[in-house]
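User: Can you predict the 3D structure for this chain?
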Amino acid sequence: MNNFIYADNDYVFISYFYDAKILKVQWKQKSKNMSDKDFKQQITFIKEAVIQYKPLYVVGNAVNMAYGITPELQEWHNNFLFPAFRDEKVEKLAIVVSEDIFTQVSIEQLIEDEKDAFFLTQYFGRESAALDWLLG
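Assistant: Here is the predicted structure, written as structure tokens:
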């Protein structure tokens, strides 16, 4: 797949796959060292990429994410990011779950708190399964 790297820093690697219309967000192990400000910056990068590339699908690989998202940040995240998903017509969000149980639960709560979800969401243990679902 032909891709473009949008962001690559200590916490996240974001790339866009033109052929499949997939935005991929790969969280890194150093995400455990993020501050709330750092987290917001990474979510801003994701939002900017969604607006720029208008993906049909987003895959968030949180296997290496070790950052617990507080309820306040969950609310901020949903109010900040998901309107861009709606406006740019994202159809599916696939999440490859974290091995850190606290992070996994906070991610699941984040998605479940989105009451007006207009995109399908599914959780996976492997990225290959997530991509199969997105493209299937």
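DSSP finds four helices and six strands in the chain. The domain at 3-92+104-135 is CATH 3.30.750 (Transcription Regulator spoIIAA).
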